Amino acid sequence: xxxxxxxxxxxxxxxxxxGINFHVQKGEIFGFLGPNGAGKTTTLRIILGLLDxxxxxxxxxxxxxxxxxxxxxxxxxxxxxxxxxxxLSAYENLDYYAQLYNVPDREEKIKNLLDFAGLxxxxxxxxxxxxxxxxRKLGLARAIIHDPDVLFLDEPSSGLDPEAQRxxxxxxxxxxxxxxxxFLNSHDLDEVQKICxxxxxxxxxxxxAYDKVENLRNTFSNPVFEIILTDAANAKNAFDLLQSxxxxxxxxxxxxxxxxxxxEENYSNILNELVGNxxxxxxxxxxxxxxxxxxxxxVKGVET
Length: 304
What we know:
Elements: E1 2-11, E2 14-24, E3 29-33, H1 40-47, E4 55-60, H2 69-72, E5 75-78, H3 90-100, H4 106-117, H5 132-143, E6 150-154, H6 162-177, E7 181-186, H7 189-195, E8 198-203, E9 206-211, H8 213-220, E10 224-229, H9 232-244, E11 248-254, E12 257-262, H10 267-276, E13 281-287, H11 291-303
């Protein structure tokens, strides 16, 4: 569906993208992650045909978007600018784009999209009076007015309050159920973790990781073990013991709880060590690392 093949982009002698490769399959929600300045927006502009790569190619439906007007009609785009006109009402904005794309039965389509965005009661109000969250939801409706097969979203929840972020995320998940392919360009790790099936992490112009979220957690994160002790004395003794073990890379004590990061899976060995030294354990469990933990591990690893 989307193929990025050995794409390099140079600006004024500086390499912004350095031979990046990834593909997005039909029906996937693909998260494209990276810190500000990593090259995410440059990559998106190249995919959309708005910018030519120095080397390599980016294809959608097996073709270059920039020179194919008919193909571009199968793509929906929501960039940082919502593409809305403040002087028009919500209905008039959608009607303008519906006419632009020759959408059949456009009145019914607009009605359904206003319901989808939760803006039916505000359909006659000028968009200039809307909050940023309302504009973002209407912008998302605008991007799918012509039923695109692929949807490109650039930081869709950036700058929104938590409630508006949740609503936008729910709308994206609803679209995913319709088997649309969604390319999500974001630095919101929580958002990506909740809605994406596969991700790529871009840093310093190269793809540092590319896989399903769960696989990345298993591949890039060290095992983490949480232990709850029966009392303060046991907690202090356990902490001292764990710090002395060569397969424990980090250890933190918080009240009666200890979080230990391991160099390798040695959960049973840790329990044997604690019990063997007369330390009383109330509870012990493995902890799953979040995407944020994995992301920070990868980025810090590149910078060191």
